[in-house]
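Recap slide: TIGR02678 family protein, sequence and predicted structure.
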Amino acid sequence: MEVFDEKAQTGLRTLLENFWILRSKEPEVYQLVREREKVLKRYVEEKFGFELIVHQHFIKLEKIPTEPKSWMGIQEFQEPRDYAMFCCALAFTENRTVDEQFLLSDICEDIKDLYPGEFPLDWTNYNHRKSLVRVIKQLEKLAILKTVEGEIDQFAMNEEQEVLYEVTVYARYFMRSYPKDLFEYDSIDEILASEWERHEGESRRKRVYRKLFISPVVYREGEDDQDFAYIRNYRNRLVDDIEEHTLFRIEIFKNAAMLVSEEKKQELTLFPDQKAIMDIALHFATYLRENKGIYQANALGNIHLTEVQLEQIIHELHTQYGEGWSKQYREGTIKSTLRELVDLLEDWEMLDREAVTNHYMFKPLIGRVSGHYPKNFQEKED
């Protein structure tokens, strides 16, 4: 019987972090996963209910979340229009044969015809052209399209610009298969609900594993949160299994559970990273911790702040630590820093914006991190 060794652990991390592994681009990683295919397939099916697809050209782990989150989207996309155009472009590529070449004007015409928006696309509109540039670049990034000749960036400046493309073998496999035709579903919730029909009797464990491994944190949503109760009740079993099969360690608190890594592996997405905004995030987390008497958490560990309060805190942090921040935040406005900080903390599920009051609700995970400059930092600045 194959064992879940270090190679299998590396393979699992890589599968969880990437959309797919392409043999042509990463032959060594592809081979590593192929060598541990049986043990990986068994583990991801038993624990997550995920399907591991091993193809002669690629390997893909079909990662279906328990609920969609904003950070799961394509980060380069800026408008709903980008996603609609992306789907139209996928329809175009699926109707082409592998290695078939076509011009940019060909796909432009098809996207325009297929586009479902209330108002039609107009390639003389700069914003529409920029959307298409983002879409084409994403298709290239996913290796669904390959540029033969030309440069897509020029299209943003001139709608007459031509580029020659080629459809790759991967175009057929981007979309996952569903239990029934997509047109038979009326909502996203129906699609997600259909996923659990084949996991009857095992759905709780698989939901918990998906939450722990895909999201930065699992929160207790209330007194009757059954998923969080499972984590507490089966704590020892989860600790043993996760430490045996991964390099992660599970931490469980009153209102939150998360996986943490002591090692900074290249294939992992970790908090904090090297972005300059992380300094401010860590300073902010420390500020909340040091002033917990003023900013008190509720029963679920959430702290509510108004925008005025948040601006005031960032202003205080800028006064205290600003000299150590990067030039962008040292010289930028408090409001622009606030926007970037909020976006970052939302992506890491440390913050929610309340739709009605427009207040900010800081979640328990922010209490797990902190950061400060050395004690002599202020002396040196003086």
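The domain at 277-381 is CATH 1.10.10 (Arc Repressor Mutant, subunit A).
The CA atoms of residues 88 and 114 lie 6 Å apart.
(End of recap.)
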